[in-house]
Specification:
Length: about 325
């Protein structure tokens, strides 16, 4: 079923309530148009941040920037609004002083969004700790595969820290917790954009020891054919299984995405990262998130705008898989 989107040629994009991409609010979708295929929802939480806080305002900023996202993906040759139905589920309740409290309340909220047997979930962060909640629910909705979900991970960091300041559920640990929970299959995880400087080599050793394929930024700079080989191998390994995509905006260079809490030089340009996403062409998705937009550090909305385009490209991967 298509998405009921107002035309930008009829209703100006700067008018109206700013839902993601101007899709209808989930609560206002008529019963005959339920269940929707994708629910996009916000998680305004940054209690898991280890440096600049402020990603709690990310969902609002991404929604605001997304008003100018038009439904036709020219490069992928598809009209997102015709491929499937989308709705904005609003924001999950959070516990601002508690990572684990937030994890629980987001899981509880997300479990009830749409129809668990059909609806997929895209979470807008918030810091990266919130990904764990959406991954858990995506894994449940995919039928709790014993191997865990294949993961496509864009990030300047690995997020495999055991704990930071005794917090095991902060934004630098979501990937490790997801592997321990059995929701993520490390042997079918591709992590793109990793770079230094580092506190310790332990997080990388943990990742590679578990079988994660890490594609550091330096490889993208020096050996693009090698990166394409890694992408092709990972794609072959996932077969037809649904994939979870987690996208930390800090994989983009601070020159293009300054509005983030743990910025790291030497990253992708926005154009490069959109091009990399398009290299995956079509994939059945289990769920996705876009995290770590910190609007108070942003300039002219460029980070929030990049995040909204990234979310659009991620949804387009799944839309293409329906053809
Ligand atoms: Mn991250």
């Amino acid at each position: 079923m298509p998405t009921d989107l107002p035309s930008g040629r009829v209703q100006p994009r700067f008018a109206g309530i700013a839902t993601f991409m101007r899709v209808p609010l989930l609560a206002l979708v008529r019963p005959e148009h339920q269940p929707v295929d994708w629910v996009i929802y916000g998680v305004p939480f940054d209690g898991g941040t280890t440096y600049h806080p402020g990603a709690r305002f990310g969902p609002r900023a991404i929604r605001d920037a997304s008003q100018y996202i038009k439904p036709i993906n020219f490069e992928a040759e598809l009209d997102l609004a015709r491929e499937f139905s989308m709705a904005d589920g609003g924001d999950a309740p959070v516990a601002p002083f508690s990572c684990e409290g937030t994890l629980e309340s987001v899981v509880e909220f997300a479990e009830d969004l749409g129809d668990p047997s059909r609806t997929k979930l895209l979470a807008l962060g918030g810091d990266h700790s919130i990904a764990l909640a959406n991954i858990r629910v995506a894994w449940e909705r995919a039928g709790r595969p014993a191997s865990g979900l294949p993961l496509l991970h864009f990030d300047a960091h690995l997020d495999t820290a055991e704990a930071i300041w005794d917090e095991r559920y902060g934004h630098a640990s979501f990937l490790r917790r997801g592997i321990e929970d059995g929701c993520i299959d490390p042997e079918r995880t591709l992590s793109i954009g990793f770079r230094g400087p580092l506190n310790t080599m332990e997080d990388l050793e943990y990742a590679t020891g578990k079988g994660i394929e890490v594609v550091p930024m330096s490889r993208w700079i020096d050996d693009r054919k090698g990166v394409d080989r890694s992408i092709a191998q990972w794609r072959a390994s996932i077969n037809q299984d649904p994939v979870y995509v987690t996208f930390d905006i800090d994989c983009i260079d601070p020159a293009f995405a300054p509005g983030t809490g743990t910025p790291c030089c030497g990253g992708f340009s926005t154009a490069e990262v959109l091009s990399i996403l398009r290299r995956f062409e079509t994939m059945r998705l289990a769920g996705a998130d876009v995290v770590e937009v910190c609007p108070s550090r942003d300039v002219a909305e460029i980070t929030a705008l990049a995040a909204s385009h990234v979310a659009f490209e991620i949804l387009s991967l799944d839309a293409g898989s329906r053809g």
